[in-house]
Specification:
This protein is an alpha/beta fold. 50% of the residues lie in helices and 13% in strands. The chain has a six-stranded parallel beta sheet, sandwiched between helices. Helix 1 runs parallel beside helix 7 and helix 9 packs across helix 11. It is globular.
Length: 294
């Protein structure tokens, strides 16, 4: 890693991965990419990224491998598959996982990767959504050793406005779970509030503006509030299934430490109900439908 800029390899070109990749390219990084659906990579290839046909090729061609994947199982698969990272990684490389996954599995995978390849692991989940990824204003919460996290902090500069080293491996994932507990409960109460305001005859379109700067203001209010009031659910910027996945991780973590989290448990129940109606792939702004018939 003596080069001025290490070569990056990004696995996962989804809603978040694509704008992240564009920011890395704009910052002058040489970027290798791989995605299960190759067609999603074409705009990035046009922007200068190098498409690799296998994960093994990407690993061998990169100094730092970044994951931006949907869930714990997806990360496990990328690590363990026949052409996976654990088969081709070496001690000169580093893995940075930008996904939001199970903290316990994170520690297990990090230990296994270190033992088998010598690679260090940083869990660095992000918050800020597509808008934050596009603007490079994400909040990143990182777990790992001091040297590894210091490298991650430097490499990820094109992505964030706030980067915090939270502690040992897995602590970044725990912090992201805490983040999602707040976000999920916030979005749900915004939905029930918008529905109540509308039923009471108030112009709910004005509520986000009216509350700007007050104690009730929040980024979710300013983003999903207008969408809920206007029933504008496209384009999808994040997904119900993502919030639900993270709330299930929150409840798993709480059970492990014998903590009561009744608000988040209720949020999980409501999101499960909403998802069962066919909304798992939809934007969380659709949660207003829990409280409105039309």
């Amino acid at each position: 890693m003596s080069k001025a800029k290490p070569t990056l390899g990004l696995i996962g070109i989804g809603l978040m991965g694509q704008p992240m990749a564009l920011n890395f390219l704009a910052a002058g990084y040489s970027l290798n990419i791989w995605n299960r659906t190759t067609s999603k990579c074409q705009p990035l290839v046009a922007a200068g990224a190098h498409l690799q046909t296998t994960i093994g090729q990407l690993t061998q061609a990169s100094d730092i491998i970044l994951l931006c994947l949907s869930d714990t199982d997806a990360v496990k698969t990328i690590i363990h598959r026949n052409d996976g990272i654990i088969q081709y990684g070496n001690s000169t490389q580093q893995l940075i996982d930008l996904s939001s996954i199970d903290p316990e599995i994170t520690v297990q995978l990090a230990d296994e990767l270190k033992e088998e390849t010598g690679m260090s692991w940083v869990d660095a989940p992000v918050s800020g959504g597509i808008s934050g990824a596009q603007k490079g204003s994400l909040a990143i919460m990182a777990g790992g050793t001091v040297p590894a996290v210091k490298t991650a902090q430097s490499v990820l500069k094109p992505l964030y406005s706030q980067f915090t080293h939270m502690g040992a491996t897995g602590s970044g994932q725990i912090t992201k779970i805490c983040n999602q507990m707040i976000v999920s409960c916030n979005v749900l109460v915004i939905a029930e509030m918008i529905a109540l305001a509308q039923n009471a005859g108030v112009n709910a379109n004005k509520i986000p503006t009216a509350l700007t700067g007050g104690f009730a203001d929040s980024k979710p209010l300013q983003i999903v509030g207008p969408e809920m009031a206007q029933k504008t659910f496209e384009p999808v910027k994040w997904r119900v299934k993502t919030l639900l996945k993270d709330l299930r991780l929150a409840n798993k973590l709480a059970n492990h430490y014998n903590n009561a989290i009744p608000m988040s448990k209720l949020a999980e129940t409501l999101l499960t109900q909403h998802g069962s109606q066919g909304y798992l792939e939809h934007d969380p702004s659709t949660l207003i439908k829990l409280y409105c018939e039309d």
